[in-house]
Amino acid sequence: MTLSHCIALSLILCGIGLFGMLTRRNLLGILLSVEVILNGANINFAAFAHFKAADPVAGAIFPIFVMAVSACEIAVALAIILSMYRRKKRLDVYRLEELNG
Amino acid sequence: MTDILFYTMAALLVMLSFFAVSLPNLLHSATALIGSFIITAVLYIMLQIEILALAQIMLYIGGIVVFMLLIILLTTGLGGVDDKLGKITIGKWISKGAITALLFTGLLYFFTENSSRLLDTGASKTASVTIDQIGVRLLSLENGFIVPFEVVSLLLLAALVGAVVIARKDTEKKEDLS
């Protein structure tokens, strides 16, 4: 178990999450893939804090902030998804054409 | 011994994460996500940062995945099955897999080319972080994280209020602007 193993693991997790973000059509599935990516980033922070850093406490604090921001994101996403579901009765991102993005 | 445990956990983590992004039933994917978060907590314990394992289990499994399960059950009926939405054609699967593989190989190439700069072996020592250190550092004024801490608390409040405002039902006025 070395630093490069952890970096490889988080790289694989980032790839999996990106694949999920591209292939999912459901809004919730996309959010779930974002969580996978954030998980890989947190593993990277923790691995560098453990193996490398002159200041390991700072590397351990950053994932906590990531978790807090992720909780905020999920709370707002819950509200958006609920109001969207009430309005459209579906969560397929390919059919949300109102924004024309 | 540690290596075998790490490889087992990493293989399980990759497998469960792939299940989480690829299973058609969202309830199954959320369950796979719970498993992957638990294994990530095990990895944090192996990296000797126990507070991250605790926060992972409390925040991610106890908070975020429960939120997700709540959304899934609220929006797709009690079964959570939406195979009509989850279905994608094999061509899209292949093309997006190709995009992901391209990015993956690019990052891998970058890391292996610059590995001497990223992973210089000087001053390599393993460190453990205790919860006391985290708490003191988080709230200390000099060289600490007091400002991000307060900003995150403000952000949580704003997200809470914003979520309530967005999800509110319009009861008194029956306007339909769309």
TrEMBL record, chain A:
<keyword id="KW-0520">NAD</keyword>
<keyword id="KW-0560">Oxidoreductase</keyword>
<keyword id="KW-1003">Cell membrane</keyword>
<keyword id="KW-0813">Transport</keyword>
<dbReference type="GO" id="GO:0042773">
    <property type="term" value="P:ATP synthesis coupled electron transport"/>
</dbReference>
<feature type="transmembrane region" description="Helical">
    <location>
        <begin position="30"/>
        <end position="51"/>
    </location>
</feature>
<keyword id="KW-0997">Cell inner membrane</keyword>
<dbReference type="GO" id="GO:0030964">
    <property type="term" value="C:NADH dehydrogenase complex"/>
</dbReference>
<dbReference type="GO" id="GO:0005886">
    <property type="term" value="C:plasma membrane"/>
</dbReference>
<keyword id="KW-0830">Ubiquinone</keyword>
<feature type="transmembrane region" description="Helical">
    <location>
        <begin position="57"/>
        <end position="85"/>
    </location>
</feature>
<comment type="similarity">
    <text>Belongs to the complex I subunit 4L family.</text>
</comment>
<dbReference type="InterPro" id="IPR001133">
    <property type="entry name" value="NADH_UbQ_OxRdtase_chain4L/K"/>
</dbReference>
<keyword id="KW-0812">Transmembrane</keyword>
<comment type="function">
    <text>NDH-1 shuttles electrons from NADH, via FMN and iron-sulfur (Fe-S) centers, to quinones in the respiratory chain. The immediate electron acceptor for the enzyme in this species is believed to be ubiquinone. Couples the redox reaction to proton translocation (for every two electrons transferred, four hydrogen ions are translocated across the cytoplasmic membrane), and thus conserves the redox energy in a proton gradient.</text>
</comment>
<dbReference type="GO" id="GO:0048038">
    <property type="term" value="F:quinone binding"/>
</dbReference>
<keyword id="KW-0874">Quinone</keyword>
<protein>
    <recommendedName>
        <fullName>NADH-quinone oxidoreductase subunit K</fullName>
        <ecNumber>7.1.1.-</ecNumber>
    </recommendedName>
</protein>
<dbReference type="Pfam" id="PF00420">
    <property type="entry name" value="Oxidored_q2"/>
</dbReference>
<keyword id="KW-1278">Translocase</keyword>
<keyword id="KW-1133">Transmembrane helix</keyword>
<keyword id="KW-0472">Membrane</keyword>
UniProtKB/TrEMBL annotation, chain B:
<comment type="function">
    <text>NDH-1 shuttles electrons from NADH, via FMN and iron-sulfur (Fe-S) centers, to quinones in the respiratory chain. Couples the redox reaction to proton translocation (for every two electrons transferred, four hydrogen ions are translocated across the cytoplasmic membrane), and thus conserves the redox energy in a proton gradient.</text>
</comment>
<feature type="transmembrane region" description="Helical">
    <location>
        <begin position="93"/>
        <end position="111"/>
    </location>
</feature>
<keyword id="KW-0472">Membrane</keyword>
<keyword id="KW-0520">NAD</keyword>
<comment type="similarity">
    <text>Belongs to the complex I subunit 6 family.</text>
</comment>
<keyword id="KW-1133">Transmembrane helix</keyword>
<dbReference type="GO" id="GO:0008137">
    <property type="term" value="F:NADH dehydrogenase (ubiquinone) activity"/>
</dbReference>
<dbReference type="GO" id="GO:0005886">
    <property type="term" value="C:plasma membrane"/>
</dbReference>
<dbReference type="Pfam" id="PF00499">
    <property type="entry name" value="Oxidored_q3"/>
</dbReference>
<feature type="transmembrane region" description="Helical">
    <location>
        <begin position="145"/>
        <end position="167"/>
    </location>
</feature>
<keyword id="KW-0874">Quinone</keyword>
<protein>
    <recommendedName>
        <fullName>NADH-quinone oxidoreductase subunit J</fullName>
        <ecNumber>7.1.1.-</ecNumber>
    </recommendedName>
</protein>
<keyword id="KW-1003">Cell membrane</keyword>
<dbReference type="InterPro" id="IPR042106">
    <property type="entry name" value="Nuo/plastoQ_OxRdtase_6_NuoJ"/>
</dbReference>
<feature type="transmembrane region" description="Helical">
    <location>
        <begin position="6"/>
        <end position="23"/>
    </location>
</feature>
<keyword id="KW-0812">Transmembrane</keyword>
<dbReference type="InterPro" id="IPR001457">
    <property type="entry name" value="NADH_UbQ/plastoQ_OxRdtase_su6"/>
</dbReference>
<dbReference type="GO" id="GO:0048038">
    <property type="term" value="F:quinone binding"/>
</dbReference>
<feature type="transmembrane region" description="Helical">
    <location>
        <begin position="57"/>
        <end position="81"/>
    </location>
</feature>
<feature type="transmembrane region" description="Helical">
    <location>
        <begin position="30"/>
        <end position="51"/>
    </location>
</feature>
